[in-house]
Structures are given as structure tokens and as C-alpha cells.
């Protein structure tokens, strides 16, 4: 094989029989579709690396999609058994990706890594779009994902895959339409021009234009593809905080701003993260106070771009809603603390590592020494914190119970037309 051929590696973290089954049935079916892995494997030195547990390897081998994948490109596995139960999914994901990158040793330099999650579904031709940016020498390709209710969308996708030899070839607008009709509650709560709900830990803001169109401004974008220009032995923070500036600090960056170019659906259980839902509206100033506590220079730069999600042509009202969004974001920007947070050793990362020390007694091997052991005399243990969170001592205990009850009673078939009204007076 010619050494001048572009080298690409897809990193896919997935473990456990159930999740391997779900991924192979939908996520992998989309990756095997037109303009995705078959095209990438023809044009590059391509390999798929599954970041998984030893017991899950045989689960892959039970699926026809896995064997079809092996006919297209090389496949390998990287063990993550020791990090799947550390108590922080973000830490597990970051360390898993880092191990996948390091698995190439010195050959990681110059390699283009494409990062995926097991709950992602890519539109047709998505990886061909990424390859186009790679050929134009972009070092980073960033993309937004949009969450939808797994319970509603997965049956539709399963039916489509079953009708097409277990392959998914979904044009961007068709996939965007499915998601827009079945938005996840956390996505609905992120829509600024609806007054009912807000997200208590917002990192993205959406505006409804019409039933087929949303626009967005995102502080967190998914690092879909990164060319490694610099070796980092140990992650300095969560992957969506640190991988771009650490691995490719000077590379040209591209952002997927229009879902017509590429769309990623993120399937999540409807009840997932319901503890972040709150009633009512929040001012830009209040959002800015929270964003100031964690947003880095990269995050603030991401939020400058307007993103378009649409299942049809953009309507005339789009420009007006964009102006509304611009005004809202200007208010946030004016209220942000001037100095962004450093991406390395970020307080969120260090806090997660300290919780792992408390809950597990030690850190994964590659992170040993990253934080000092918390003083045992403090009395704060992970079980105690969880107990307080679930008790009436938690300040928002009543509101959280009401919202959890509301989400649990939502029928999966309600769709975007379901209306829930409550009066707590």
C-alpha cells in the first residue's frame, strides 16, 4: 500500500451485548450505506477501531453487519475493560478515544481520526463530505448533533434498514425530518422561542422557524474528524474540551453549518437527562453566568456560527429568526466573563477525576497522579452526594420530582404535537 495514501481511522466506543446489538442494527447499518464507509475505504487507508470490552468482541461477531464491515475495511479492537465502570461516562469516553489514538503509536501523527458514538446515525454521504474536507487539508471537521427520542425514531430506522438488506441510506433532509418530528426533551428545552421549559445546563440554543426548520448556536460541537499533529500521552480534559486544541492546535477548522451537507442524529432515551429540565424562561444574563463557569476559548468561538437544521427548503422567516438569535447571543456574549476557562485541567475534568478517586479509590492507570487524593476526613463520598441529590435537602427536590413525573407520563407516541400544561398555584 502506498505510504502517500491518506490514513483514516474510525473510533467507535461501544460495549455490552445490548448496545452492540443496537449499534450494529442501526448505527453500523448507516455507516455501511452509500457515501459512507464503502467510499472512505476505497479512497483511503481505512480501519475501524472498536473501543470495547473483551466480553463484547464475540457479540460483534454474531452480526451480519460486522462481517460485511470486514469485507470493506480492516477492523480491530482496543480493550477498555478497566475504564467502563469508573462512574463518569465523559471520562470513559475520553480515555477510550485516547487509547484508540495511541494504538497506532508513532503512526498516529498525520492520521485522520473520525470519532463516532454508538448512538449516532449518519446521513447518506456523510463520510464522503468529511473526506472532501480532508482532501482540502482541513485538520479538524466539527459538526453539531441533534438529539431525538430513541423510542420513536429507532423503530422507523429499523423498518427502513430491514427493507433495504440491513443498510441505511438516508438523505440528510429525510433524517433531519425524523429528528425534528421527535426531538428529545432536552432539545425541546433548548428552544429559546418557546416559554415553557429551559435547560438548566444549556450548552446549545435553538430557535424554531417552522415545523421543518430549526436554527442553532452551539457552544459544544462534536469533533467529528481530527488530524493528529501532536502526540498527547495523557488527555488533559474531556474530549470535547481538549482534543481539538491539543491534537491539532494549528490546523484549519471546518464546521458543518447546514444539515443539507451532513446530518448526525443522536438517539437518546426520552427520559435521559430529565433532571436538567426546568419550567419557565431564563434570561441571557443568567445563561451567561453558567457559561462563564465552564466555556473555553474554543467553545465561545463555536457559538459564533449559526447552524441550520431543516427537512425542506429554508423558509422566508429564517432571516428574521436569525436576527432574533443574533440579538440573544449578543446579550450572552456581553454578559460573559471576559476571560474564558483554560481547556487543560478544566474544573469539570478535575472534579470528575476527584469523584472517581472517591468512588473507586484510584484512577485509571494512565491518569495516576493527575489529581491528589481527596482528604478522607472531608466526609464527602459519592454515595452521600447521590443520597443528598435524591433527598428533600436538595434545593430543587420538589421541582425535580415534578419534572421527572411529567417526563415519565409522556407517551412515546405523543410526538411534537403533545402539549403538557401545569399550574402549580
Structural description of this entry:
The protein is α/β, with parallel strands linked by helices. The chain contains 16 helices and 15 strands. The protein has a 7-stranded mixed β-sheet with strand order 3-2-1-4-11-6-12, sandwiched between helices. Strands 5-13-7 form a 3-stranded mixed β-sheet. Helix 1 packs across helix 4 and helix 11 (284-292) crosses helix 13. The longest helix is centred in the last third of the chain and has 18 residues, at 318-335. The radius of gyration is 22 Å and the shape is globular.
Characteristic terms for this protein:
425 residues, alpha/beta, 7-stranded mixed sheet, 16 helices, disordered C terminus
